[in-house]
From TrEMBL:
Gene for this chain: purU
Active site: 225
Keyword entries, A-Z: Hydrolase, One-carbon metabolism, Purine biosynthesis
Magnesium recorded as keyword: no
Pathway(s) the chain acts in: Purine metabolism; IMP biosynthesis via de novo pathway; formate from 10-formyl-5,6,7,8-tetrahydrofolate: step 1/1
Gene source species: Acetobacter estunensis
Protein name: Formyltetrahydrofolate deformylase
InterPro entries, sorted: ACT-like_dom_sf, Formyl-FH4-Hydrolase_C, Formyl_transf_N, Formyl_transf_N_sf, PurU, PurU_ACT
Amino acid sequence: MFVLCMTCNTRMGIVSRYSDLLFKAGGNILEINQYNETDSGLFFMRIAFVLTDESKQETLTSELTELATRLEARWTLHDQTQPQRVLLMVSKFDHCLIDLLYRWRIGELKMQPVAIVSNHPRESLGAVDLYGIPFHHLRVTPTTKPQQEARLLDLIQSTGTQLTVLARYMQVLSDEMSTHLQGQCINIHHSFLPGFKGARPYLQAWKRGVKLIGATAHYVTPDLDEGPIIEQDVERINHADTEETLIRKGRDVERRVLARAVRYHLQGRVILNGARTVVFPD
Ligand SMILES: Nc1nc2c(c(=O)[nH]1)N[C@@H](CN(C=O)c1ccc(C(=O)N[C@@H](CCC(=O)O)C(=O)O)cc1)CN2
């Protein structure tokens, strides 16, 4: 199966042009989603299709390129039989990492984990099964971040990483690194953004006395906790909760929000729209 994502200035006939092109190329559309953003005049579309004759893929790609040029469209085409190479990053809290690895092991997340990176030694993860995925301890201090990030960048390039997931990685990536990874790095923030940014959102939530806590998965940008949001969810809490019970209740929300965001990204269901996203959920 292939997934085509495109965005361009809206006009009549975009859907029919693509569906006609795919039909003539022997493509069978399995799922199609589109959205017209009236304010901006932008059009967004995702088409999942199979090719009845795989040998036509090259011709199809050149025809799609021509059409995108005529439409001045931004587009991507992913062969879903080629799982994306994913680098997972973690600090002390491993619940999101373990959850992603479990969903990968049972086939829910179609990805190819290529490395697990932590700023803490392997022992900090205890007896967690990493299924033979190479583990890299990249220690960092405020003064060694450039060197550490140079090693991280080497690893991302040498493993052919296509998606980096910050699964409770608690170090701020530099402007250079987050810009280099634009649209290819997803972070799980343990609050319902824009509320309670920073490193201790559950303490902030407890002090504020909120009745709902949440989690937010977003693409990483140089602006801390400001990246385009992919997915969010909440959990009801009450006056009797402490920071500890919020951290416990928060773990479940973080796990499901990050897993959904990673799945949507891997399935080509997220299209960047400036500082926001268009998401076609499954
Ligand atoms: N460029 C970005 N890098 C990271 C982002 C981001 O949005 N843009 N998100 C963080 C994750 N995060 C919240 O979700 C977060 C992590 C860490 C901190 C923080 O203040 N860290 C301190 C050090 C904390 C420590 O050593 O324990 C720091 O880096 O000085 C705030 C928010 C991941 N990276």
